[in-house]
Amino acid sequence: MRMQLHTVFLAAALCIGLSAGAQTRIETSNRILSQSPGGEFSVFSSITKYLTLGDAASLSSWFADNLDVTVISSTRNCSRKQAQEILRSFFEANTPRSFQVTHKASESNKKYLIGLLNAGGELFQVTIYATANAGDTYKIQQLNISRQTAY
């Protein structure tokens, strides 16, 4: 399972432009990021907390004005409000129990995170891609929630 997640992470990192020659920081962790105050990935602290709580309204404050949202097999480019409603519906059907960060990476003004969400008796892989504007305020550009398959 770890090897396959690592492969998925590396493929996704290449898709978002993290090249082998670039100055890139990649970390693998089995601890919940919200328990890691400060640091390079502190931007994900609140985001992971809201995922764990199933708080779509608070999570949406981190959304870009328009973002790509994939939940299970449905993909949409939508507004912040539409994305909030999609996640609210997901959390109502799948009550979160925990969220664990499995991979994270960064490059200049980009942050990337993969984690496992235990919700509604199932495991979901969550992938988040966030970018910073000129004021170093990170906003989620892409959010993907997919069912974790057994291997």
General description of the model:
The chain is α+β, with helices and mostly antiparallel strands and 151 residues long. It has one domain (2-10, 45-147): Nuclear Transport Factor 2, Chain: A, CATH 3.10.450.50. 29% of the residues lie in helices and 41% in strands. A 7-stranded mixed beta sheet has the order 1-4-5-6-7-2-3, with helices on both faces. A hairpin with a 5-residue loop joins strand 6 (122-132) and strand 7 (138-147). The longest helix has 14 residues, at 2-15. The chain is globular.
* Rounded average pLDDT: 78
- Strand order, sheet with most strands: 1-4-5-6-7-2-3
Element-level helix/strand string: HEHHEEHEEEE
Oligomer: single chain
Strand content: 35-45%
Task: Please outline the helices and strands.
Layout: H1 2-15, E1 25-28, H2 43-53, H3 56-60, E2 63-71, E3 74-79, H4 80-93, E4 96-107, E5 110-119, E6 122-132, E7 138-147
Parallel strand pairs: 2-7
Antiparallel strand pairs: 1-4, 2-3, 4-5, 5-6, 6-7
Q: Which features would summarize this protein structure in a list?
A:
single chain, 151 residues, 7-stranded mixed β-sheet, Nuclear Transport Factor 2, Chain: A, 4 helices, alpha+beta, 7 strands, 41% strand
